[in-house]
Amino acid sequence: MAQNTSMEEFEALLNESFEMDTPNEGSVVKGKVIAIEAGQAIIDVGYKMEGRVELKEFANPGEAPEISVGDEVEVYLRAAENARGEAVISREMARREEAWDRLEKAYADDQRVEGAIFGRVKGGFTVDLGGAVAFLPGSQVDVRPVRDAGPLMGLKQPFQILKMDRRRGNIVVSRRAILEESRAEQRAEVISNLQEGQAVEGVVKNITEYGAFVDLGGVDGLLHVTDMAWRRVNHPSEILSIGETVKVQVIKINKETHRISLGMKQLQEDPWDLVAAKYPLSSVHTGRVTNITDYGAFVELEPGVEGLVHVSEMSWTKKNVHPGKIVSTSQEVEVMVLEIDQAKRRVSLGLKQTMRNPWEVFSETHPEGTVVEGEVKNITEFGLFVGLPGDIDGMVHLSDLSWDERGEDAIQNYRKGDMVQAVVSEVDIDKERISLSIKNVGGDKFAEAVGGVKRGSIITVNVTAIEDGGIEVEYEGMKSFIRRSDLSRDRAEQRPERFSVGDHVDVRVTNVDSKSRRLGLSIKAREIAEEKEAVEQYGSSDSGASLGDILGAALKGDDE
């Protein structure tokens, strides 16, 4: 009885021992290194089960294996026995299982993990996380693109797990997240020590079209191009270079976005403080053209002080010309200060004011009545425009083209480019107008001819033509026409054919029309006037004397 009990207990203990000590395939077991040979470590995993592991499985990437006889290690039991009767074990798989457990816990707790970059693959790098291999995308290596990752290879450093899937064996990590977090902490610390208005030194890290980024010791600030100098800066590279140390002033700090605005000109004296004193109104100065626009040109009076010459203040004579046709960039010009707006930091300048008004000059050198000569620049429906000294024009109205022809007819005799002479009739400086007269060149022949002739005067004319309606006569070169009814007091004598071309005839002036430049003449009026004068002098119609008696007496008196 006692013997049977002992056998049962032994069998139970034996079974328990087998169940307890025999490791399950696919699990991690502990073993002891009993020998190292042929590049392999022989490991006893218990129950006379031994297996071999390549020494490289005990080494970290890029490092020599650290293993020696007697060391206890954990290995992964893939199979209890192979064809040679040895256990199939793996140190690498054991490390991987251990690593995944550790990494899953770190990922759940949002903790950093340590690893080393050991290889390059498409789109990024491979990272050893102590047994598990993770993928590091190229965009997650650094806060800025990395051209050479050589210095980072094999270097143990912290990473942040972005994503992991144990079933698929995928792990994605980021080095950039660690740097940004560290950088954010550093930025916060640096910004906490900065104050608006403070002057600090920094290093120019990058230059763009609109400004430069300056490193203030862990945090970047933007130095905008408009805050680099008081003068106009077309591109930051004109005054800054990458790597240069500059002194700047903190203009503004945004605590939420950690953005810092910097300025250099704020540390310099503002030239506008002295503008009013240095550039009084109407004073003339030399400046440099810095920019040309459709509406004018900007002229730099001194670094930081620019003024605008509006297109209307550029030339006395060129009214509708682009400013670029008058001045060029970098040209030195003389300008006059027209207006200063201190609040808006604007100076209005004039270019034409430094030169005399050409209409004033012309008025002084060519008073009214002066004869000038010029080229016909343009022909319009109301007259001619003639080029004059000083690059200005004068206008000859239709009515001032000819004494003898209608203006519409006389203008047909002129062409652009013709050289003409004209008399200055009027100069209006305010309206910038000059009136000219071609017909007055050589004087007014009509006025000269009839200067002493008045209505009622008796003059002698020369017959130049005989017509049915009367006769054409000439007096001092001026033509007139005597109608048939004015040829005689006697109707029977009102015959044009009784006159001949070349006859000299005494006539009475009945009208002097300066506008139409015509004399009204009449033989009939002269005869009536003579009769009236004879009656008054030698008799009266009431005395009974006949007209023949009176005229006979008058003629006799003339003979005596």
Topology of helices and strands:
Layout: H1 2-21, E1 27-37, E2 40-44, E3 50-54, E4 72-79, E5 88-90, H2 91-108, E6 112-121, E7 124-128, E8 133-137, E9 156-165, E10 170-174, H3 176-192, E11 199-207, E12 211-215, E13 220-224, E14 245-254, E15 259-263, H4 275-278, E16 284-293, E17 296-302, E18 305-310, E19 332-341, E20 346-350, H5 358-365, E21 371-380, E22 383-388, E23 392-397, H6 407-410, E24 419-428, E25 433-437, H7 445-449, E26 458-467, E27 470-475, E28 478-483, E29 504-513, E30 518-522, H8 523-538, H9 547-559
Parallel strand pairs: 13-15, 18-20, 23-25
Antiparallel strand pairs: 1-2, 1-4, 2-3, 4-5, 6-7, 6-9, 7-8, 9-10, 11-12, 11-14, 12-13, 14-15, 16-17, 16-19, 17-18, 19-20, 21-22, 21-24, 22-23, 24-25, 26-27, 26-29, 27-28, 29-30
Structural class: alpha+beta
User: What is the mean pLDDT?
Assistant: 81
What is the CATH level 1 assignment of the largest domain? Mainly Beta
Main sheet strand line-up: 3-2-1-4-5
Compute the number of structural domains: 6
Under CATH, the homologous superfamily of the largest domain reads Nucleic acid-binding proteins
**Basic shape:** rod-shaped
Radius of gyration, CA atoms, in whole angstroms = 59 Å
Pfam family, one: S1
Family: Belongs to the bacterial ribosomal protein bS1 family.
GO cellular component, one term: cytosolic small ribosomal subunit
Protein name: 30S ribosomal protein S1
